[in-house]
Amino acid sequence: MSTPRKDGLLLEVVDLAKHYKVNTGLVFSRTAGTVKAVDGVAFQLKRGETLALVGESGCGKSTTARLVLRLIEPSAGQVWFEGRDITTLGGSELRAMRRRMQIVFQDPFASLNPRMTVGAILEEPLKVHGIGDADTRAKRVEELLGLVGLAPYHAKRYPHEFSGGQRQRIGIARALAVEPDLVVCDEPVSALDVSIQAQVVNLLKDLQARLGLSYLFIAHDLAVVKHMADRVAVMYLGRIVEIGPKDAVFATPRHPYTRTLLSAIPRPDPHRETARQIPGGDVPSPMNPPPGCHFHTRCAFASELCRTQSPALRPTDASGHMAACHHFETLPDVVVERDRAQAPAAAKRLALYAERRARGPASAG
Fold first, then answer.
1. pTM of the full predicted structure?
2. Measured between alpha carbons, how far is 206 from 60 in angstroms, rounded to an integer?
3. Kind of pairing, strands 239-245 and 231-236?
4. Is the N or C terminus of the chain more exposed, i.e. has fewer CB atoms within 10 Å?
5. Strands 50-54, 337-338: parallel, antiparallel or unpaired by DSSP?
6. In whole angstroms, how far apart are CA 310 and each of 18, 128, 206, 313, 324?
7. pLDDT at 278
C-alpha cells in the first residue's frame, strides 16, 4: 500500500475521454460517427471528501465513474490515484489497486447475485483478494452486516428476501469489505423510495466519518447532493461546465446550465416563488455536438463567441469555484425570490386549506 500524499490528494483525473465509434452497414464495416460520451473531464478528490457529479441523464456521469475505476478503458487521459497512473497498470498491479477503489451500483435488485446468500456475496471480494482464512472471513462478514445496520442472521438469507433499502445496504457492505479508500456511488439512492433515501444517505455520511472514506457521488437529485457533497461538478454533454464548493455552486451558480438545474428544484413553500430558467430545444446528440460551447443552442445568453469557441474552466473567485462560460461575469440574476406579499394566491390557497382542515374531514374535500 502506498504512502498517503502530504497534500491529502487521493484522486486526480486529467483530460479523461471516452469515445465510441458508431458502425453501420451489413457487417458494421463503415464508421458513421463517434459518440463523445466523456470529452476531456478533469477534477481532483481529496481524502475524506465527497465530490458529486451531477447533470441530465446521458451527460456522461456514470461513464466517468467507470473510467475512474477502469471498468471500461479510456480513449484518452489519465487517472492518478495517490500518485500512480492506473491507466498504465495491468494484471496483479491493477487488481491490487482495485482493492482500494470500490463501487456501489444504482440498482440494488440487479447488482446482487440472486443465487448467492448475503454471506457468500460479502465473502466473495475477500476471497478474490486472498484476505484471511474461513474463520476470519466469517467474522468480517458479521462485522460488515453490523456496520450497515443489519443482523448476523441476515448472512444466511438470499437477496430476494430483503427490501430495496436493505439490498442497497448489502451493496454498501460489499463495497466496504476490502477496506477501500475511494467508493464510487453511482446514483445509490435513485432506485429507492423517498422514505428510504434519507436513511441510506445518512448511512453513507456516517460511514465516511467513521472510516475516512472518499466518495465520488453520481446523482441527478440536487437535494440529495446538497446534503451529501462537499464539492459539486456539473456535467453537460461529456464536459464539466462548472465545479466548486457546494455552497458556492448552489448560492451563486455561474453557468447558465447550472442555473437551469437549480431553478428546477421543487420548493415546498407556497409563499416562495422562483423564476425558473427553462432552456429551449432539446439536448444535442453526443455524436454530433454543436461547435463552441455545447450549451449555446439552448442558452438565452449565447453570443457569437459561444458559437465558435469552446470555453475553458476559469476561476470565478478564490474558493476554487470555476465555470466554463465566456460571459459568467456579466450574466444577470435569474433566480428571483418573491415574498408573501407578492404571492397572494398561494397564501390564500394555504389559508383556505387550513380553514377546511380546522372544520373537520367532512369539509376538507
1. 0.85
2. 28
3. antiparallel
4. C
5. unpaired
6. 19, 45, 40, 10, 8
7. 66
Reduced to 3 states (helix: H, G, I; strand: E, B; else coil), residue 12 is strand
- Listed in sequence order, the DSSP H helices in the chain are 61-68, 91-98, 118-128, 134-147, 164-176, 194-211, 222-228, 246-251, 256-263, 304-308, 344-359
How deeply is 221 buried, as exposed, middle or buried, from its count of CB atoms within 10 A (0-12, 13-18, 19+)?
A: middle
Closest-CA residue to 187 (of 228, 237, 140): 228
Q: What is the pLDDT of residues 99-146, one digit of tens each?
A: 999 999 999 889 999 999 999 999 999 999 999 999 999 999 999 999
Q: Which of 197, 346, 345, 201 is nearest to 268 (CA)?
A: 346
Query: Is there a contact between 241 and 258 (Cβ–Cβ < 8 Å)?
Result: yes
| Contact by Cβ (8 Å): 333, 357 | no
Q: Are 214 and 11 in contact (CB under 8 A)?
A: yes
The owner of cell 461547435 is: 291
User: By C-alpha distance, which of 251, 242, 244, 201 is closest to 221?
Assistant: 201
Q: Which residue has the cell 475512474?
A: 68
**Spatial distance between the Cα atoms of 65 and 74, rounded to a whole number of angstroms:** 11
Q: 66 with 98: CB under 8 angstroms?
A: no
Domain boundaries, the chain: 245-365
pLDDT at 234 over 70: yes
Mean residue pLDDT across the chain:
86
Q: How far apart are CA 291 and CA 324, in angstroms?
A: 14
261 vs 132: CA distance, rounded Å: 47
* pLDDT tens figures, 316-347: 988 899 999 999 988 876 543 433 333 454 44
N residues, the chain: 365
- Specify the pairing of strand 84-85 against strand 76-81: antiparallel
Phi and psi at residue 248, to the nearest 5°: -70, -40
DSSP string, 94-115: HHHHHTTEEEE-S-TTTSS-TT
Straight-line distance from the first to the last Cα atom of the chain, in angstroms, rounded to the nearest whole number: 65
